[in-house]
Amino acid sequence: MDTSTTSSSSSFKRWKYDVYLSFRGEDTRMNFTDHLYFALKDAGVNVFIDDDGLRRGASMENDLNQAIQGSKIAVVVFSENYAESRWCLDELAKIMECRRTLGQLVFPIFYRVDPSDVTNQTGSFGTAFLKHEQRPQEEVKEKLQLWRKALTEAAQLFDPSLGNADR
What we know:
Keywords: NAD. The protein is of the alpha/beta class.
């Protein structure tokens, strides 16, 4: 048995999608994200985009997690109300986990928001986190740190100096 062939083929990852689009639907679905989606599709890129018609609940979350894990690249469109959605924040946390564990490429796009607001959770991102912090659900409180870390990591992919007080 040739081990070099075995190890080579076992390390090869077959991606189901080229790109996973993460975005806040009410902010960008009918404009920027739709244009981006169709431009990528027209270029022959296999893109996963969630659908308003998808069922809600655990099965949808599982389907989205599988789509995230099966995507070579994640494009995250940060918009004004992105951080208001626990769904978006959970999705981002999963994307950043896949970046670390699977080598997924992540490209942040800042749609009418300042990248430093994403990094530092200020502006509309800070307001959204104040609302999340006031929620009584323990699961949300446990996720706050995970969400903050994911936002900071993603924004720093755009500019590594963001959030660095020494610069």
